[in-house]
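Subject: sequence -> structure tokens, single chain

Hey, anyone have a minute? Need the predicted structure for the following. Not urgent.
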Amino acid sequence: MATIHDVAAYILKNLGPMSAMKLQKLVYYAQAWSLVWEDRPIFTARIEAWANGPVAPALYNKHRGEFRVPNWPDGKPEKLSVADSTTVDAIIKFYGDKSPQWLSDLTHMEDPWLRARRGVAPGAASKNEITVESMAEYYGSL
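Reply:
Had a minute. Here:
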């Protein structure tokens, strides 16, 4: 199985440098759609419902303080299976030209983030997990 770092490296290799927020959202959607299309997670890292949308702490801890992420030396894009790279390619094709704010706004309208944020004040910090079960259920229904 690929790691979240492999997925991040693959995205950056194919799209080039981007904001940390955009990278977080693209990795989130790679996980979401892998659950639907492949019936399995693409990585095992935790995703949390932060104020600005889904965030994977494993990535955040590496890019903390950086607005723009040029590459991801902690990952190996070639570790993605054919199925995984096909999934991420579809994510790049559909979401890749969207702005970070557009992606963040989209996640704020979707049930997995909303459910994980239930009871948390708008803009407040949260470490509540967006579960793979909630992602599979929601995106699988679309």
